[in-house]
Specification:
Layout: H1 2-6, H2 12-39, H3 45-55, H4 60-67, H5 71-84, H6 94-101
Helix pairs in contact: 3-5, 3-6, 4-5
Length: 102
Protein backbone atom coordinates (compact mmCIF):
# COMPACT_ATOMS: atom_id res chain seq x y z
CA UNK A 1 0.00 0.00 0.00
CA UNK A 2 2.88 2.32 0.74
CA UNK A 3 4.30 1.56 -2.69
CA UNK A 4 0.98 2.57 -4.27
CA UNK A 5 1.08 5.84 -2.35
CA UNK A 6 4.65 6.47 -3.48
CA UNK A 7 3.53 6.16 -7.10
CA UNK A 8 1.09 9.04 -6.64
CA UNK A 9 2.13 12.67 -6.69
CA UNK A 10 3.53 13.50 -3.27
CA UNK A 11 5.65 16.32 -1.98
CA UNK A 12 9.22 15.75 -0.78
CA UNK A 13 8.01 15.94 2.83
CA UNK A 14 5.25 13.42 2.18
CA UNK A 15 7.77 11.16 0.43
CA UNK A 16 10.00 11.24 3.50
CA UNK A 17 7.04 10.43 5.74
CA UNK A 18 6.10 7.51 3.48
CA UNK A 19 9.65 6.18 3.55
CA UNK A 20 9.70 6.35 7.35
CA UNK A 21 6.28 4.73 7.55
CA UNK A 22 7.37 1.94 5.21
CA UNK A 23 10.49 1.29 7.26
CA UNK A 24 8.53 1.19 10.53
CA UNK A 25 5.90 -1.11 9.07
CA UNK A 26 8.57 -3.50 7.82
CA UNK A 27 10.05 -3.68 11.31
CA UNK A 28 6.66 -4.46 12.81
CA UNK A 29 5.45 -6.99 10.25
CA UNK A 30 8.73 -8.70 9.45
CA UNK A 31 8.77 -11.05 12.47
CA UNK A 32 5.22 -12.21 11.73
CA UNK A 33 5.89 -12.76 8.03
CA UNK A 34 9.21 -14.49 8.74
CA UNK A 35 7.55 -16.80 11.27
CA UNK A 36 4.71 -17.50 8.89
CA UNK A 37 7.08 -18.04 5.97
CA UNK A 38 9.46 -20.27 7.94
CA UNK A 39 6.72 -22.38 9.48
CA UNK A 40 4.47 -22.61 6.42
CA UNK A 41 6.87 -22.01 3.53
CA UNK A 42 4.36 -22.97 0.83
CA UNK A 43 2.41 -19.71 1.13
CA UNK A 44 2.27 -17.53 -1.94
CA UNK A 45 3.17 -13.83 -1.62
CA UNK A 46 -0.54 -12.95 -2.01
CA UNK A 47 -1.50 -15.44 0.72
CA UNK A 48 1.08 -13.86 3.01
CA UNK A 49 -0.32 -10.42 2.21
CA UNK A 50 -3.89 -11.59 2.88
CA UNK A 51 -2.75 -13.26 6.11
CA UNK A 52 -1.19 -10.00 7.26
CA UNK A 53 -4.41 -8.08 6.48
CA UNK A 54 -6.57 -10.71 8.21
CA UNK A 55 -4.29 -10.52 11.23
CA UNK A 56 -4.82 -6.75 11.24
CA UNK A 57 -8.57 -7.32 11.43
CA UNK A 58 -9.56 -6.24 7.93
CA UNK A 59 -12.67 -7.69 6.27
CA UNK A 60 -12.66 -9.50 2.92
CA UNK A 61 -14.14 -6.40 1.29
CA UNK A 62 -11.45 -4.12 2.76
CA UNK A 63 -8.66 -6.50 1.73
CA UNK A 64 -10.12 -6.75 -1.79
CA UNK A 65 -10.17 -2.96 -2.13
CA UNK A 66 -6.59 -2.62 -0.88
CA UNK A 67 -5.19 -5.35 -3.10
CA UNK A 68 -7.25 -4.56 -6.18
CA UNK A 69 -8.85 -7.98 -6.53
CA UNK A 70 -12.40 -9.22 -6.04
CA UNK A 71 -13.92 -10.22 -2.72
CA UNK A 72 -14.28 -13.76 -4.10
CA UNK A 73 -10.54 -13.94 -4.76
CA UNK A 74 -9.85 -12.98 -1.14
CA UNK A 75 -12.28 -15.69 -0.01
CA UNK A 76 -10.30 -18.23 -2.05
CA UNK A 77 -7.00 -17.03 -0.53
CA UNK A 78 -8.49 -17.30 2.96
CA UNK A 79 -9.66 -20.84 2.16
CA UNK A 80 -6.17 -21.74 0.93
CA UNK A 81 -4.63 -20.19 4.05
CA UNK A 82 -6.90 -22.25 6.29
CA UNK A 83 -5.97 -25.38 4.32
CA UNK A 84 -2.21 -24.72 4.46
CA UNK A 85 -2.37 -23.79 8.15
CA UNK A 86 -4.21 -27.02 8.95
CA UNK A 87 -7.40 -25.39 10.21
CA UNK A 88 -9.71 -26.09 7.27
CA UNK A 89 -13.12 -27.39 8.43
CA UNK A 90 -12.26 -26.63 12.05
CA UNK A 91 -14.07 -24.16 14.25
CA UNK A 92 -10.99 -21.96 14.61
CA UNK A 93 -11.05 -18.27 13.78
CA UNK A 94 -8.42 -17.51 11.12
CA UNK A 95 -7.46 -14.18 12.68
CA UNK A 96 -7.12 -15.72 16.13
CA UNK A 97 -4.95 -18.50 14.71
CA UNK A 98 -2.73 -16.01 12.87
CA UNK A 99 -2.37 -13.92 16.03
CA UNK A 100 -1.25 -17.01 17.94
CA UNK A 101 1.47 -17.72 15.36
CA UNK A 102 3.29 -14.47 15.89
Amino acid sequence: MVEKLKMTTVSARQGNILTTLESNLEEITSPFLNTLDAKYFKLTPMEMQVANHVKSGLSNKEIAELTGVSKGTITIHRHNLRKKLGILNKKINLRTHLLSIG
